[in-house]
Write a structure and sequence with these properties.
The complex is a heterodimer of chains A (96) and B (640). With 96 residues, chain A is of the alpha+beta class. Chain A has helices at 33-43, 48-51; strands at 4-8, 21-25, 63-66, 69-70, 86-90. A five-stranded mixed sheet of chain A has the order 2-1-5-3-4, with no helix packed on it. Chain B has three domains: 7-204, Aldehyde Ferredoxin Oxidoreductase,  A, domain 1 (4-Layer Sandwich), CATH 3.60.9.10; 232-423, Orthogonal Bundle (Aldehyde Ferredoxin Oxidoreductase Protein, subunit A, domain 2), CATH 1.10.569; 435-520 and 540-639, Aldehyde Ferredoxin Oxidoreductase Protein, subunit A, domain 3. In chain B, strands 2-1-6-3-4-5 form a six-stranded mixed sheet, sandwiched between helices. The longest helix of chain B is centred in the last third of the chain and has 21 residues, at 541-561. Chain B is of the alpha+beta class and 640 residues long. Classes of the chains: A alpha+beta (96), B alpha+beta (640). Chains A and B meet through strand 3 of A and helix 8, helix 9 and helix 20 of B.
Chain lengths: 96, 640
């Protein structure tokens, strides 16, 4: 079993030049959904405003799913990730 | 006068008579403009028992006070008439450049009535209005005819709304194409134009719109523009337009495949039919409507007759339509959009009737003999286009399908109604099981099966609910109002969103870029400030909400007079049936009928309507709609 998770997110939408799907290794510092995005925003500064407020508190403007389940129905940003999980980042549905 | 031009032009094609009227102050005060004034004119001038194709039936085109000004996105016009497939209130909202040009030419509203003896088009040139022969363009597709008009009028700057052969042939799902690639699609407007022998309206204007307080107006417009430019959704619109709804809906169990009989697109389909791959396969560039800082219109390339044509514009709607036909091919999506636009058909209305026919065919209600050998199965691209051409030309079975889904179901008989995915005759665009609020909004919408008149988008904002567990209570006064998984509190959110959309449509703002779709975009406060600065009269948020409520009540009252009641506020039976497959991702599996009806009861009660969805005298009088209260009282007495 891989010790990593897959992040499915069109990075180019927020100006980060990365492929749509990335693999991220889980470790002692990266255990939850929030940890994943803290890690990513350290690597890619332009992402910060999309996930955290000015005080560094969680403030995502995306809907986030783990294995197709909304984190609203799990433990929110504190949802613990497991190897092989797929984290999907989406804008909410609107309009026609 | 500020904001409004102050004029209505009325064209009677039977009498070949053109008159101009002042836009009455009481209409401006009570309904603001656009959809609001249109709806009241429809109520006043089109008797509820009149056929939509009757020569005296009206078509009202309205451009609200924001249109043509500095207000960002202020281009959205509304066309209102009795619906040729709903047989009740119907309207359609459109973007592009036509509506600003109409105001620059001197008119807030155009009222069309009568029927010309021969094909005509209307030429509006800076206040001068002429009925001209359309002999040379009748029968042409929308693209060819629009080019021909530009040549005839010797002006590439004109803006035109145009019907295609579908509208000429009274196909009930025909649309009006605006500026080549924008559509007033929803309402069957193309057929109503066709019933008047009206091919097109071209307009050119050079006049301005007066602003009461230019400094204040410029400041608030600049603020609104910056909110949109820096809004969090803006990069997404730039990259995908509305196509990213494919993924969002998939994660809600809202793929709506094969006439909604299958809830999820197969994985193999999603591998090709996802927003990024569609972009990679057919996208060329972006275009925007008048004064829009977003530019969500995604243009594309399409293969036709061995060559490549560049066309515009892909929305989520046609992508959803192609899925509903069981097709997951980006190149076919491009071809579908090109064909429906060219022939002047509404994408979703046409998909709805073809998907209905496919399900009838697969269940033996339509045979090979009926289709003249066309194998009308889901996923068959060639058959889809063949049947589309038959609908446009009313050939063979196309003549039945051209009547729209409900009338076609009646003609086919044999229980075909159960495959009609419609509400009040209007075509379904989404699986209603993705949220209780969306379901209620679809059921009670004034034009039926409508995701655009009051869907509470907030029930899809999981991110907001995670941050604020009190979101529903804080914004709508009910703790569960923003929760898609329960019917509780949905009367509050649906009423709020319906009225918000009424305000937006009356002003002429774009519903895709206001705070109902993203907190960070301009909201009611900015709308009230922009309107006050523009017209020189102070409007509060509460004033606007009352206008929104008034508009919704006028439309409901018209529908009541057309015979619609509580029983018509429903969803297709398929969704109440426990044997209908459901998505693992859906918030709602089989819809509980008791909960659904109870949700409606609460909605009617909050609106001040009786249990049969008829607005009460008390509420109508509170809204100042005394004439309508009298009409509905008279109706009640007739039925005692």
């Amino acid at each position: 079993m891989s010790e990593s998770i897959t992040l499915d997110f069109p990075f180019s939408v927020i100006g980060v030049n990365k492929p749509a799907k990335s693999t991220i290794s889980l470790n002692n510092n990266i255990k939850t959904v929030e940890d994943v995005f803290r890690h990513l925003t350290r690597l890619h500064e332009p992402m910060k405003n999309y996930f955290f407020d000015e005080k560094g508190e969680w403030n995502s403007i995306f809907n986030i799913f783990v294995n197709k389940k909304s984190i609203l129905d799990l433990k929110g940003e504190k949802t613990v990730l497991h190897p092989g999980d797929v984290v999907t980042v989406l804008f909410p549905y609107s309009g026609g | 006068m500020y904001g409004w031009v102050g004029k209505i032009v009325r064209v009677d094609f039977t009498k070949k008579k053109i008159t101009t009227e002042d836009l009455p102050k009481d209409l401006r005060d009570t309904f603001i403009g656009g959809r609001g004034i249109n709806s009241k004119i429809l109520y006043d001038e089109v008797p509820p028992n009149m056929d939509p194709f009757d020569p005296q039936a009206r078509v009202i085109i309205g451009a609200g006070p924001f249109i043509g000004t500095l207000v960002p996105t202020a281009c959205r016009g509304t066309i209102t008439h009795k619906g040729p497939f709903t047989f009740a209130f119907c309207d359609s909202n459109f973007g592009g450049y036509f509506s600003p040009e109409m105001k620059y030419a001197g008119f807030d509203h155009i009222i069309l009535q009568g029927r010309s003896a021969e094909p005509v088009y209307l030429w509006i040139d800076d206040g001068t209005v002429e009925i001209r022969s359309a002999e040379n363009i009748w029968g042409l597709d929308t693209l060819t005819a629009a080019q021909a008009l530009e040549k005839e009028l010797e002006d590439p700057e004109i803006h035109t709304m145009m019907i295609g052969p579908a509208g000429e042939n009274l196909v009930r799902t025909a649309c009006v194409m605006v500026d080549y690639w924008r559509a007033a699609g929803w309402a069957g407007t193309g057929a109503v134009f066709g019933s008047k022998n009206l091919k097109a309206i071209s307009v050119r204007g050079t006049q301005g719109i007066k602003v009461a307080d230019p400094n204040r107006f410029e400041a608030i417009c600049k603020k609104a523009r910056n909110m949109m430019l820096h809004g969090p959704r803006t990069p997404l619109y730039h990259r995908y337009g509305r196509l990213s709804n494919i993924e969002s809906l998939r994660h809600r169990g809202g793929d709506g495949v094969e006439n909604y009989r299958i809830p999820d697109m197969p994985e193999s389909g999603f591998e090709t039919f996802n927003s990024e791959n569609i972009r990679q396969t057919i996208y060329t560039h972006r275009e925007g409507c008048f004064n829009c800082p977003i530019g969500c219109g995604h243009c594309f390339k399409v293969e036709v007759d061995g060559g490549e044509i560049h066309a515009s514009k892909i929305e989520y709607a046609p992508a959803g339509d192609v899925k509903a036909l069981g097709i997951y091919n980006p190149k076919f999506l491009a071809r579908w959009v090109y064909e429906v636009n060219k022939w002047g058909l509404d994408t979703t209305g046409t998909q709805n009737v073809i998907a209905f026919a496919m399900e009838c065919y697969e269940n033996g209600l339509i045979t090979d003999k009926d289709t003249e050998g066309i194998e009308l199965t889901f996923g068959n691209e060639e058959a889809t286009l063949e049947i589309l051409y038959k609908i446009v030309n009313r050939e063979g079975i196309g003549d039945i399908l051209a009547e729209g889904t409900n009338l076609a179901a009646k003609k086919i008989g044999k229980g075909a109604e159960k495959y009609a995915m419609t509400i009040k005759g209007g075509r379904l665009h989404l699986d209603p099981r993705i949220g209780w609020g969306l379901m209620l909004a679809h059921a009670v919408a004034s034009r039926g099966a409508d995701h655009l008149k009051g869907t509470p988008w907030i029930e899809f904002w999981d991110f907001a609910a995670i941050k604020d567990s009190n979101l529903g209570e804080r914004l709508f006064g009910h703790p569960r109002a923003a929760d898609a998984s329960t019917p509780e509190g949905k009367e509050y959110t649906v009423k709020w969103y319906q009225e918000s959309k009424g305000i937006i449509d009356a002003l002429g703002f774009c519903a895709g870029q206001d705070s109902s779709t993203s907190f960070d975009y301009p909201g009611h406060e900015e709308m009230a400030e922009m309107l006050s600065a523009l017209v020189g009269k102070e409007y509060t948020v509460e004033d606007l909400k009352i206008v929104g409520e008034r508009i919704y009540n006028v439309e409901q009252a018209y529908n009541v007079r057309c015979g619609l009641r509580r029983k018509d506020d429903s969803i297709p039976e398929r969704f109440f049936d426990k044997d209908t497959p459901t998505s693992e991702n859906a918030k709602i599996k089989t819809v509980d009928r008791k909960k659904f009806e109870s949700m409606k009861d609460k909605y009617y009660s909050l609106r001040g309507w009786d249990t049969d969805a008829i607005p009460t005298r008390k509420r109508l009088e509170e809204l100042g709609l005394h004439d309508i209260a009298d009409d509905l009282d008279a109706l009640r007495k007739e039925h005692v």
